[in-house]
Amino acid sequence: MSHAVAAPEIVVDEKSHDFGILYSEEHQTVTHRFEFQNVGDATLTIQDIKTSCGCTRAEMAKREIPPGESATLVAELQFRDHRFKDSIRISLMTNDPAHPVFEVGLTGFLLRHWILEPPSIEEIVAVTGQTTERAVGVVSNQLLEEAPWEILSISSDHPQLAATLGGKPKVESKQGFRMTQYSLGVRIAGGESPSLGEQGTLYLRTSDPAYPVLRLPVRWLVEGDLTLSTRNVYVLRSRLFRPPPTAGDQDRNRRKVVVSSRSKTPFRITSVDLGPPFAVEWDRERVSDTAELILSITGEKAQHAEGTLSIHTDREREPVHQVRVRGEAQEIQAIFSAPTTQHHFGNILKGEAKFIERTFTVSNLGTRPLDLCVQEVHETDAKLSGANLPPGASAAIALRADLSRKEGAFDLWATIASNDPTKATETFRLTGLILPPWRLEPSTLSFRTVQPNEEEERMVSLRQVFPSWKKPLIPQPSQTDNGEVAIRPGKTMATYDSEGLGHAETEISVVLTPRSSVSGKYSVSIPIQVNEPGARGIPPLRVEWQILGDLRARPSPLVFFPKAGGAADQKPTRLKLYSKGSLPFAIKGVQAPENVSISEIERHPTSISYEVRLLSELKGEPTIRFQTDRPGEPEIEVGILVSEGREGSASASAR
């Protein structure tokens, strides 16, 4: 008889809450409360709470919910940006067997009143006497039920800065809101004089009562006749090995800035300002319509640095030009580099390859010599062609391994140590899979209980691996000398892979016809014969069976059910020995484990009943042996086990 087990059951007032459309400027954080209830008949435990997004926090003050009671989950969604949001999942880990992971969700759509793309204009280069233009996108979002907003006017606080709206705005109706897109043309007049830095603000007045004025900051500089090839330079002194530059090539660790005259009027660079660790090279005496400056980073210290290069010229109206300089000096050292550190040999047939070997290449990409040595090996030999590599040089690492005694997957390796501080060791591996030529599944075939002279049949699978240029061997019919076990092979099916191996499988019928009528356990090993005499490595098949005589045990095996109190709280189990043919018998002795108590409770000529109790924790697979007065059945063996299932279902299966 089975019994229902008490369990919690979680329910929620709503599985998903929709916030609808929200303005991000007005709702940086939104909160919702989910009400949970335990409608089961055991305490509900919330073991953990996880969210699918880091912008969401979820907390429960009450994690233990008795039957019939409720608890509240407070979910807080924080908007960290102004992009549209979709759904967020909140997962509760519970002890509800039907819902170990219970999910609720938050959904919503986030709008921003106004969006400027880009929100500011930086580092614009204008030219004296010319106008420079930039395009800016302006987007407004509003709910459909709200009156449309408009850009009413545009003004500027700088005489050289202005903007106008271009054309008719594009209006799109979305689900629940309206998107209006404007094109703003920003104009910067170069004026009459060069300048190292100008800034101003554009003011866009709107009909939106919440945001009547939008601000667009603008920064620019003005060039005159002299122009620079770049206003930003990144200089690197690399730790990597670089061959000397050939004619016409520039060293990659040096950067060039070119100053040129639009009117082709000669000028001269009088001086430069740029502090350590940067250095600048230029021709101090050169007078031309172009000038080149070479920037590099110096010193032995590894560091990141920033600075401003000020270039002074002999031009009265353009005396100074500035370039932002950033740089990195990496530590000078040896650098260990290997294109590959592992070779996988795939499937190898056992006996076909006694040794395997592979050569790996190691290079020094650093600026100092690389020292190498074999630090550790695992079932392989490793040899280095060079232990000290100059910058730019390479060496070979040869690995060789013996596979004659291996089977299955293998992972053979050698570890190489070096003086590269970022890679003090590197491990080179030889991996693969050695397949046995024969495999029998199962290797032991067990018939549980059989009757004398009654035929029983089971199936086994014989698998073989062979070189693809050969044919598979064919198993032959055979039987034991007394005819108790017979082997009847089926058809052999073969396939071939891309690695030069064939795979064949034969389903074999094993027929057992026991001759002995004496109860007990029997076994025999029978060789598998194939169509090639003398074939090696074919495993024999072991066949086991048990014959039941007149004496029986019920139940068999004995089953105990775990209790909270441990072995001392176990219920006793009733065991009955009986004669199937109703013939009298007697028990002469009992052998039971020390932690098992057995006592006789009822006796009849053809049956005997016992009460069996487990005294302590069960270990291994113990048995109880009963010695009888039957010459042909001198012993009855009964196994013992502890069920992991429910008592009701286990009892039913035991019966």
Account of the 3D structure:
With 655 residues, the protein is mostly beta strands. It contains one helix and 51 strands. The strands form twelve sheets. The protein has a five-stranded mixed β-sheet, with no helix packed on it. A hairpin with a 6-residue loop joins β17 and β18. The longest helix is centred in the C-terminal third of the chain and has 8 residues, at 647-654. The relative contact order is 0.06. The model is unreliable at 245-250 and 646-655 (pLDDT under 50).
Secondary structure topology:
Layout: E1 10-12, E2 16-23, E3 29-38, E4 44-51, E5 56-60, E6 64-65, E7 70-78, E8 88-94, E9 101-111, E10 114-117, E11 121-127, E12 131-143, E13 151-156, E14 161-165, E15 170-173, E16 177-189, E17 195-206, E18 213-223, E19 226-228, E20 232-237, E21 255-261, E22 269-273, E23 278-281, E24 290-297, E25 303-313, E26 320-329, E27 336-337, E28 342-349, E29 355-364, E30 370-378, E31 381-384, E32 388-389, E33 394-402, E34 408-418, E35 425-435, E36 438-441, E37 444-450, E38 456-467, E39 478-479, E40 485-496, E41 501-512, E42 520-526, E43 541-547, E44 551-554, E45 558-560, E46 573-579, E47 587-591, E48 596-604, E49 607-614, E50 623-628, E51 635-642, H1 647-654
Parallel strand pairs: 2-9, 11-18, 20-26, 28-35, 37-43, 45-51
Antiparallel strand pairs: 1-3, 3-7, 4-6, 4-8, 5-7, 8-9, 10-12, 12-16, 13-17, 14-16, 15-16, 17-18, 19-21, 21-24, 22-25, 23-24, 25-26, 27-29, 29-33, 30-32, 30-34, 31-33, 34-35, 36-38, 38-41, 39-40, 40-41, 42-43, 44-46, 46-49, 47-50, 48-49, 50-51
